[in-house]
Structure formats: structure tokens, C-alpha cells
Amino acid sequence: MFRSSLTILALALAVGACDREAGPAAQQEEKSAPAKLELSGEIDRSQAGTLLPDLLLSDPAGRQLNLGAVQGTPVLINLWATWCAPCVVEMPMLDNLADTMGDELRIIMISQDLQGAKRVEPFFAKNEFRNLEPWLDPDNQAAEALGDLGMPITVLFDSSGQEIFRVTGGYHWDSEEAIALVREALQEQ
């Protein structure tokens, strides 16, 4: 019975690993994510046509970005946190996707870390991303606006600000399949 209780506890902790509802104490220093973490996100088109939320984000330097005014170029929004293992695993893949897509697509990374720049700046410095910019949303307004389905969540919007598809959970964004999927979705618009 003791073993089954430990097993249940371990499963509960694993399921709650990316729980955004936890307070600041739960958002500990990021640890190296397992290199072979399974990324099980799937394409979801059920909210296609939903408009890009009108939110004001800031970067660690204090510059602001009005998300609702980002139009004219397709946008891939990714909600992530330094303490979310699948988020950390897919970020280099998103950086590679940005390399591949160039000016065809803007990728906006929105951190859900409650401690904002204090966690995000060192994380970005350590990982030396070439194409990703850190945007902060410590009040988790973006998560609420996008449906708060867990993390990571990535949503592709067309150049007029309408959702094409979303992926909840990690995804291999730099795979040939993902690149073809994004390009095909953008051409359909």
C-alpha cells in the first residue's frame, strides 16, 4: 500500500509539473530538461478564426509590445516558463524554426514566469537563442486570453490576426513535418 501511495504521488507531481496555478514558490529555478522528453502536442484547429488577443507585453528592458497591433505578418505565439520541462525542450526547436522561416513568420515567446525578468533574462543568456525575444506576462493574461490549457501552448495566427491552429504541449517545431505544416497553413490563408 505504501508503494502504491508513492506511485500515485509521483504521478500527481508529474502531471502537475507545468501547473500555472501554483504560486511563486512552485516556480523554482529551471533544471536541465531531459533530452529525450517526449513531446506529445497535437495540432488543434477547433478555435480557428479566433482573433489574436489584444494584450500589452513587456520585455526585460521595459519595451512594450501591443499584441493586438501585430498584424501584417503571420505570428506564432508560444506561452512558456523556465520551470516547464516541455517548454524548455522545444525552445531551441522554435529558434531553429525562426531561422528556417525568416521573414515569413514572427515568433513571439511569452513567459509565464511569475518572477518575470529575474528568471527569464538568465535563461535566455544561458541558452543563447539567435532569433527568440523574451516577452513577459507575469500576470498570465495571455494564458487566460488563449484558454489557459497548460503549457507550453503555441498558437499560429495569420497575417490578419486570426488563429489557424494551436498546439498544447511540446512539439518538434523544427521537424520537416512541422515546417511543412506551418508553410501549408500560411499558404491556405
Written account of the structure:
- It is a single chain.
- Helix content is 32%, strand content 19%.
- With 189 residues, the protein is an alpha/beta fold.
- It has helices at 2-15, 85-101, 117-127, 141-146, 176-188, and strands at residues 42-44, 56-58, 64-66, 75-80, 106-111, 134-136, 153-157, 163-168.
- The chain contains five helices and eight strands.
- A six-stranded mixed beta sheet has the order 1-8-7-4-5-6. A two-stranded antiparallel ribbon has the order 2-3.
Structural class: alpha/beta
Task: Give the uncertain stretches in residue-range form.
Answer: 1-17, 19-35
Report strand %: 15-25%
Beta-strand segment tally: 8
**Distance separating the two termini:** 56 Å
- Helicity range: 25-40%
**SS summary, helix count:** 5
**Strand order in space, largest sheet:** 1-8-7-4-5-6
Mean pLDDT: 83
Element pattern in H and E: HEEEEHEHEHEEH
Largest sheet: 6 strands, mixed
Shape: globular
**Global Rg:** 17 Å
